[in-house]
Write a structure and sequence with these properties.
Elements (H helix, E strand, L loop, with lengths): L2 H11 L3 H12 L9 H22 L9 H12 L14 H8 L1 H15 L2 H5 L3 H18 L7 H28 L5 H8 L17 H12 L2 H21 L9 E7 L3 H13 L3 E3 L18 E2 L5 H6 L10 H17 L1 H5 L1 E10 L17 H21 L8 E6 L7 H12 L3 H15 L2 E8 L6 E5 L9 E2 L2 E3 L9 E4 L2 E16 L2 E11 L2 E6 L6 H11 L9 E7 L2 H10 L7 H4 L4 E6 L18 E2 L14 H4 L4 E5 L5 E8 L4 E6 L2 E2 L13
Parallel strand pairs: 1-2, 1-3, 1-4, 4-5, 8-16
Antiparallel strand pairs: 6-7, 6-18, 7-11, 9-10, 10-14, 11-12, 12-13, 14-15, 15-17, 18-19, 19-20
Helix pairs in contact: 2-3, 2-8, 3-8, 5-6, 6-9, 8-9, 9-15, 12-13, 15-17, 18-21
Length: about 700
């Protein structure tokens, strides 16, 4: 089935409605039937949405892509210019600006609607006029309310939006499941396989904001020898295959691999697709929409691109607070179950994501906008409930113990003038001799397995002082506490990790500066008692209240507390040396940063939803520390067992004093001393630290 054939039923449903929407939007641009200042808003929004509708019709005309590279760049800039930082101060996408113009009540709600309509830009390029039509009808319905003699009650407008997402939530959920289980939804795959990648006009087919990052990385990869591209693809796909092998999962049962990659990496992805097809896997793209209903700013698209304005995304990340309630959450969960049930055989063929990340962007320190939507306490609990239940529903049809993943990262040109050197060094880091690391890490594990607990302290300005209690071994000849993690699902090589015992795990964790999930944290401090966070603080904002709100939303993910789900020791000192040499410590992604020192994950364990599946190290010992006192509650109530988040916080070697293993008899042995590896046989790890 071709891509356009897949969408034909949806297009048929709106065949008569779409022209009517287009006509009405054109009328709204010039009518004066609504009072000022709302008239200007509706005229502007109608004009923008009509532009997208016309664009959607033109894109599939034969001559559209004959435009020059310069013409396509101008079109791209025209679609996104309003929310770019230099124009954002007077954009309807800016909550501060729109509330100043329309008042706080109407402004916040209509600003949320405007952001939803702006999120439809890529849909126009994908030929998805279904979404364009229904959002056009929503805008028209709200516009009609403002044409009356008196302004509508704010609750009337909110209810229109509420019922829109209630009624169309079934479609949004269905399309999300279809994207995981339908190779026919191959819009992205066709760009990779069918485009002339030497002609950079292909970059604009996505409809995303295209910057020098995307253009330069595509040019750079185009200049690389084919053997180097193939080597990058092989590292990526082989990590995916090995992930199934080492965990004893049967890849032959699977048919779909979920591709997630950055724009500009198409040449590598083309080679990767061919590798996956040799494994019997067809690519799918499990896209999460960027509309508010899907949790704008919290989900991820299968294809990532440089953000036109991270402050804009931050301002609108909680927009569904405008209408979220328990009934809507239950409705969403109901339609998600139905969508999976209708596709349950295909869902069982989903193997998991294969992810390419990028790094190199400047750290983002958001500003709090008092007019942006924020979740109230009840909605925060609903978000937690919805996340947990959604994962549980998904896990019913795509079982955690049967799927796997892989993830690898590369720099983007924004990292600086030494980009090409850093890229080459990253390739080296991603392809280190995993057998050598496996041997050295096993020597560390042999020492760690002797411990009752581990004591970690910082040095200099770092005030870390933590006691981490280790899982007791019943049979040390056959069991182990730590996983020997090499380059498979988590590329690059370099860590040993465990799920700590919570009771007794206590103390203070401090990092002077760290970059987590796109945000820079300054002087991040967490206190633990019996493995649970009891206090948290940072110095990002001027007031403690702002810092608390920021941390609860972005680190604790709306939970009151989180457990320490993982304790690990990163061993990739080559990656650490790379970061120091090029001054990019604050730009490393968590994927690499977690390998450059000890790290502590807050949230779920690394084995969440698959704790009962045996896992073995290369030496044949079973890793028995797969759960903690919280995740053990899954047997009673999964709602109490999981938090749907896992964030690694790394202490760099230069802020680290000692990691000491304390045995049951009180004797001690250092794994790291003064920031250097101290276990005999691990000396090569210290060479890059010299």
């Amino acid at each position: 089935m071709a891509y356009q054939d897949f969408w034909r039923p949806y297009r048929e449903e709106t065949k008569e409605r779409f022209p009517l929407v287009l006509e009405r939007l054109e009328q709204m641009e010039t009518e004066e039937t609504t009072p000022c200042p709302y008239r200007t808003y509706f005229q502007h929004t109608a004009a923008f949405l009509r532009k997208l509708c016309i664009l959607e019709e033109k894109i599939y005309q034969e001559d559209f892509w004959n435009k020059s590279l310069e013409e396509l760049e101008r079109l791209n800039q025209d679609l996104y210019w309003e929310i770019l930082p230099k124009h954002y101060v007077e954009s309807y996408g800016n909550p501060a600006y729109i509330t100043e113009k329309l008042g706080e009540s109407y402004g916040r709600l209509l600003g949320m609607l405007y952001a939803d309509i702006r999120s439809l830009i890529p849909y126009a390029f994908e030929g998805r006029n279904y979404e364009l039509t229904i959002f056009g009808e929503l805008l028209i319905e709200i516009y009609n309310c403002f044409e009356q003699e008196e302004l509508p009650e704010i609750e009337e407008v909110r209810q229109i939006i509420y019922w829109f997402f209630h009624d169309y939530g079934e479609i949004f959920a269905e399309l999300g499941v279809l994207s995981q289980t339908s190779p026919e939804m191959d819009f992205y795959v066709r760009i990779i396989l069918d485009s002339d990648l030497s002609d950079l006009r292909y970059l604009y087919r996505y409809g995303f904001y295209i910057t020098e990052n995307e253009r330069k990385i595509a040019e750079f990869l185009n200049q690389m020898p084919e053997k180097d591209i193939q080597a990058m693809a092989d590292t990526y796909t082989e990590g995916y295959r090995i992930g199934f092998e080492v965990t004893g999962k049967d890849l032959s049962k699977k048919k779909y691999v979920d591709l997630r990659y950055p724009v500009g990496f198409e040449r590598m992805m083309r080679a990767a697709i061919k590798n996956f097809q040799k494994m019997g896997l067809e690519p799918v793209a499990a896209r999460n929409g960027e509309i508010s209903f899907s949790g704008r700013g919290t989900g991820s698209r299968s294809v990532e691109c440089t953000s036109p304005n991270r402050q804009y995304e931050y301002d609108h990340k909680s927009d569904r607070a405008a209408y979220l309630d328990k009934a809507l959450v239950e409705r969403r969960l109901e339609v998600l179950r139905t969508a999976y049930e209708n596709r349950k055989e295909r869902a069982s063929w989903y193997a998991g994501p294969a992810v390419v990340e990028t790094f190199g962007q400047e750290g983002f320190e958001p500003e709090n906008c008092p007019f942006a939507y924020q979740f109230n306490e009840k909605q925060q609990k609903l978000n937690v409930y919805m996340a947990n239940q959604s994962i549980q529903v998904t896990n019913t049809y795509i079982k955690g113990e049967e799927r796997s993943f892989t993830i690898i990262a590369y720099p983007i040109p924004e990292i600086g003038r030494q980009f090409e050197e850093i890229f080459a060094k990253t390739v080296e880091v991603n392809t280190l001799d995993y057998k050598q690391y496996q041997r050295m890490q096993q020597k560390m594990i042999d020492v760690l397995d002797q411990g009752e607990f581990v004591h970690v302290t910082g040095k200099g300005n770092n005030t870390t002082d933590l006691k981490i209690v280790l899982y007791p071994l019943n049979d040390p000849e056959k069991e182990t506490i730590f996983e020997n993690c090499v380059a498979d699902v988590n590329i690059p090589v370099g860590e040993v990790f465990t799920s700590p015992v919570l009771k007794g795990t206590s103390g203070h964790l401090h990092v002077t500066e760290v970059y987590l999930n796109g945000f820079k944290y300054l002087d991040l401090e967490l206190d633990f008692r019996d493995g649970m966070i009891t206090r948290y603080s940072c110095k990002n904002f001027h007031t403690e209240e702002e810092n608390q709100v920021f941390l609860k939303e972005n680190l604790l993910k709306h939970h009151d507390t989180l457990p320490m789900g993982e304790f690990a020791i990163g061993t990739n000192t080559t990656a650490y040396r790379m970061a120091l040499d090029y001054g990019i410590q604050d730009k490393l992604p968590i994927l690499i940063a977690e390998k450059t020192g000890p790290h502590f994950a807050v949230g779920d364990t690394c084995y969440s939803w698959a704790e009962d599946t045996p896992v073995y190290n290369p030496d044949g010992k079973e890793i028995v520390a797969r759960e903690n006192e919280i995740s053990r509650l899954r047997k009673e109530d999964s709602q109490k067992a999981y938090f749907s988040c896992h964030t690694d916080i790394t202490i760099p070697y230069d802020e680290l004093d000692v990691i000491t293993v304390v045995r049951k008899d009180g004797s001690c042995v250092d794994v790291i001393r003064d920031g250097k590896f101290a276990v005999p046989g691990t000396e090569p790890l210290n060479q890059p630290l010299a």
